[in-house]
Amino acid sequence: MQIEQTLSIIKPNVIIKNSIGSIISRLEKAGLFIVASKMIKLNWEKAVSFYIEHKNKSFFEDLIHFISSSPIIVQVLEGYNAVQRNREIMGNTNPKLALSGTLRSDYSDSIVENSIHGSDSIISAKKEINFFFKTKEIFSRI
Ligand code: AMP
């Protein structure tokens, strides 16, 4: 097992429901360490830039509208196999398919408003972490 870092975004529907702490608590209890964290509000252009790989998808406008609709929490999570571990804790992108007890099963409102984002590979994690954080803002703890 190797120590990895992954990017997590707590999405607007969680912020609006005042459930930030519940999500963070579940990530920590599952063995992930928060090594960088901030609340930000994405404007339309920055949201498009983050999700550019989905620009031709039918849900793209809904996704950009949602993610830029209120503040979000962006975090770097660190831990053993953090990319895959975080994806297990989050569950399937579609909350209807997410296993019971996963974050997306418990906190989503729809497939777009699915409560949390996590990097899907080590390569994307590096890219996504660089998108939001400078190296000096990340405090590795393992
Ligand atoms: P991904 O890059 O796969 O994590 O997808 C980014 C986000 O797009 C997901 O977290 C969902 O909010 C949204 N999304 C992905 N697939 C769909 C879909 N089939 N329908 C609607 N929204 C989706």
Automatic annotation (TrEMBL):
<keyword id="KW-0808">Transferase</keyword>
<dbReference type="GO" id="GO:0004550">
    <property type="term" value="F:nucleoside diphosphate kinase activity"/>
</dbReference>
<dbReference type="InterPro" id="IPR036850">
    <property type="entry name" value="NDK-like_dom_sf"/>
</dbReference>
<keyword id="KW-0597">Phosphoprotein</keyword>
<comment type="similarity">
    <text>Belongs to the NDK family.</text>
</comment>
<protein>
    <recommendedName>
        <fullName>Nucleoside diphosphate kinase</fullName>
        <ecNumber>2.7.4.6</ecNumber>
    </recommendedName>
</protein>
<keyword id="KW-0546">Nucleotide metabolism</keyword>
<dbReference type="InterPro" id="IPR034907">
    <property type="entry name" value="NDK-like_dom"/>
</dbReference>
<dbReference type="GO" id="GO:0004519">
    <property type="term" value="F:endonuclease activity"/>
</dbReference>
<feature type="binding site">
    <location>
        <position position="114"/>
    </location>
    <ligand>
        <name>ATP</name>
    </ligand>
</feature>
<keyword id="KW-0547">Nucleotide-binding</keyword>
<dbReference type="GO" id="GO:0005524">
    <property type="term" value="F:ATP binding"/>
</dbReference>
<keyword id="KW-0540">Nuclease</keyword>
<feature type="binding site">
    <location>
        <position position="93"/>
    </location>
    <ligand>
        <name>ATP</name>
    </ligand>
</feature>
<keyword id="KW-0460">Magnesium</keyword>
<keyword id="KW-0255">Endonuclease</keyword>
<feature type="domain" description="Nucleoside diphosphate kinase-like">
    <location>
        <begin position="3"/>
        <end position="140"/>
    </location>
</feature>
<feature type="binding site">
    <location>
        <position position="11"/>
    </location>
    <ligand>
        <name>ATP</name>
    </ligand>
</feature>
<dbReference type="GO" id="GO:0006241">
    <property type="term" value="P:CTP biosynthetic process"/>
</dbReference>
<dbReference type="GO" id="GO:0046872">
    <property type="term" value="F:metal ion binding"/>
</dbReference>
<dbReference type="Pfam" id="PF00334">
    <property type="entry name" value="NDK"/>
</dbReference>
<comment type="subunit">
    <text>Homotetramer.</text>
</comment>
<feature type="binding site">
    <location>
        <position position="59"/>
    </location>
    <ligand>
        <name>ATP</name>
    </ligand>
</feature>
<dbReference type="GO" id="GO:0005737">
    <property type="term" value="C:cytoplasm"/>
</dbReference>
<dbReference type="GO" id="GO:0006183">
    <property type="term" value="P:GTP biosynthetic process"/>
</dbReference>
<keyword id="KW-0378">Hydrolase</keyword>
<comment type="function">
    <text>Major role in the synthesis of nucleoside triphosphates other than ATP. The ATP gamma phosphate is transferred to the NDP beta phosphate via a ping-pong mechanism, using a phosphorylated active-site intermediate.</text>
</comment>
<feature type="active site" description="Pros-phosphohistidine intermediate">
    <location>
        <position position="117"/>
    </location>
</feature>
<feature type="binding site">
    <location>
        <position position="104"/>
    </location>
    <ligand>
        <name>ATP</name>
    </ligand>
</feature>
<dbReference type="GO" id="GO:0006228">
    <property type="term" value="P:UTP biosynthetic process"/>
</dbReference>
<keyword id="KW-0067">ATP-binding</keyword>
<keyword id="KW-0479">Metal-binding</keyword>
<feature type="binding site">
    <location>
        <position position="87"/>
    </location>
    <ligand>
        <name>ATP</name>
    </ligand>
</feature>
<keyword id="KW-0418">Kinase</keyword>
<dbReference type="InterPro" id="IPR023005">
    <property type="entry name" value="Nucleoside_diP_kinase_AS"/>
</dbReference>
<dbReference type="InterPro" id="IPR001564">
    <property type="entry name" value="Nucleoside_diP_kinase"/>
</dbReference>
<keyword id="KW-0963">Cytoplasm</keyword>
